[in-house]
Amino acid sequence: MDPRILELCREDPRFAYEAYEFVCDAVTFTQDRLGRAAVEHEEESDDRHVSGGELLNGTCALAIREFGMMAPVVFKQWGIRTTDHVGEIVFKLIKVQRLSKSDRDDPDDFRDLFDLAQALRDGFEITLGDTAKRGDR
Asked: What domain of life (predicted)?
């Protein structure tokens, strides 16, 4: 466990440790998804930067991939209920140098962009795929 994140959890117990780790993973996932992944031996670059909106979309996509239809429940358990909460976590991680920030980043980038729980619910799709038909038994 990262002691910096443990300290954040002690300072502000609203968010679970796992929420902070997940947001870090979501940054990497979003960078990969957008073709902005880190290259070995590369210095921190503005080319890898993701916006608040991009990160929120990536966070939802990763949550749906990892947790499926349980994503809204997991986020609720972790204390993440709004896009603002994701932004708060991001800026707390910046404060402890787990994430980096560009000059144009602002907490308002996350402010009430969409209904997070609804996006997590809407993003999950149940597909039946190739199921045997009753007559095929």
From this structure: Bacteria
- Both tokens of residue 8? 């954040």
Backbone angles phi, psi at 10, to 5 degrees: -70, -40
- Per residue in 85-98, pLDDT (tens digit) is 999 999 999 999 99
Percent helix, strand and coil across the chain, each to the nearest 5 = 60, 0, 40
Rounded Cα–Cα distance for residues 83 and 120 (Å):
11
Q: How far apart are CA 9 and CA 20, in angstroms?
A: 9
Looking at the chain, the whole-number percentage of residues with pLDDT higher than 90 is: 69
- The helix/strand/coil state of 85 is helix
Q: Give the orientation angle of helix 116-123 with respect to helix 71-78, to 10 degrees.
A: 150
Of 115, 120, 96, the closest CA to residue 4 belongs to 96
pLDDT tens digits along 96-112:
999 998 888 999 999 99
Burial of residue 47, with CB atoms counted within 10 A of its CB: 0-12 exposed, 13-18 middle, 19 or more buried: exposed
Q: Cα 35–32–94 angle (5° rounding)? A: 110
